[in-house]
Amino acid sequence: MKLQRKNRRALALGAIAVSGALALTACGSDDTGTSGSGDSTATAAAGNIDCGDAKGQLQASGSSAQKNAVDAWVKQYTASCKNVQINYRPDGSGAGITAFTQGQTAFAGSDSALKPEEVTASKKVCSGGQGIDLPMVGGPIAVGFNVPGVDSLTLDAATLAKIFDNKITNWNDKAIAALNPGVKLPDLKIQAFHRSDESGTTDNFTKYLKAASPNDWKYEGGKSWQAKGGQSAQGSSGLAQQVTQTTGAISYFELSYAKGGIKTVDIKTEAAQPVKATVENATAAIGAAKVVGTGKDLALELDYTPSAAGAYPIVLVTYEIVCDSGNKPETLPATKSFLNYIASEDGQGLLKDAGYAPMPAEIITKVRSTISGLN
């Protein structure tokens, strides 16, 4: 399917209006965003998307990390392809993969690549094929905090590991003070929040802790939180809400959720200066990722301990998981059409304004080629 390139500049200009969370079509979730505005944005998109034979309802679920990106994509896509309704449930990567391997959805979103046992399970619903990972969305996992009187905060992996493992429990702890000379830290209890649901964001955050400070983070890792203590909340939006309303709070979530005045931690790495959580700094780290998947699978290996200046170390990549072959005939046209759009220059062009990092050119080119061969 060849994407139409006409009026790309008009779409890029219109996309500036798309930021944060935009409303999904007929989809409710715990990660409720705000409605986007501007019919001109949708109108600008109308001539750039190849709908082909796409029609009907497309069910998908998974990563809440990519919800704000999916919202923006769905708004643009359905303005052009009016015969398609896309329902994306941001109920976590674990739940998304389970729904996909049980044949309940056309594709899933996951912030972690499929595990061998999940690939095996996918073969039951992918007739003659298997589930594959298509990297589509990148970005920084921000560490948000709410400490009265503190506007700027630097932490390193060892200190973060001890905070989230309940080993550092007060904001004026000497380890935090040593990283923040001249900052007046209050005598205040730390309220550390983690995800209550299975989450690829948790997986990537704990992979960073384990890689960057193995002596302080002894847990195996994975989508489920394993450390003792702390408090929990559902979804990235739930964690962001807790940071906003809880004095002394700290938590982790995608940068797109660090809105409404949430302050984020600068991360001390091997570089000379601490690194801020920005799309550009995350892109610098993701650009060093390696494709380690085999065949049509495009799973990436991320570097959680970059030493280059300006490379933000806590990043994730969200994959769209789909059958390489054996997709359901009734949803295949809509699946390919939508995936083709979000992997296109126009689709990837929306990501930065929504707080995400587009995939590097060499990676997204492989993704587009793989999508074209789905059957």
From TrEMBL:
Gene Ontology MF annotations: phosphate ion binding
SUPFAM superfamilies registered for this protein in UniProt: Periplasmic binding protein-like II
Keywords: Phosphate transport, Signal, Transport
Domain PBP intervals: 54-345
Any GO CC annotation of this UniProt entry: ATP-binding cassette (ABC) transporter complex
One BP term from GO: phosphate ion transmembrane transport
Binding site for phosphate: S63, S64, A65, S93, D111, S199, G200, T201
NCBIfam families in UniProt: 3a0107s03
Similarity comment: family membership: Belongs to the PstS family.
PANTHER family cross-referenced by the UniProt entry: PHOSPHATE-BINDING PROTEIN PSTS
Stated name of the protein: Phosphate-binding protein
UniProt organism field: Streptomyces zinciresistens K42
Organism classification: Bacteria, Bacillati, Actinomycetota, Actinomycetes, Kitasatosporales
